[in-house]
Design goal:
The chain is α+β, with helices and mostly antiparallel strands. The protein is 51% helix and 17% strand. GO terms for molecular function: DNA binding.
Length: 71
Amino acid sequence: MSIYFYLDIDKILKQRRWTLSKLAEETGISITQLCNIRASKRASLNTVNKIASSLNEKDLSKILSFEENSK
């Protein structure tokens, strides 16, 4: 069994009631890159850290989601 985590852009937008443009503005990450992350749900640790820092979020479970794979 494996547990995977991914950056959940939709979760962030919903919690903050923000648009993608607002998230891009607050984080300094381009809308294009955020769209790519949103589609693939993959982000580097640097990007996760940058978003968490921009949001003053110390609890990563608020911006990450987890999936369990039984394989």
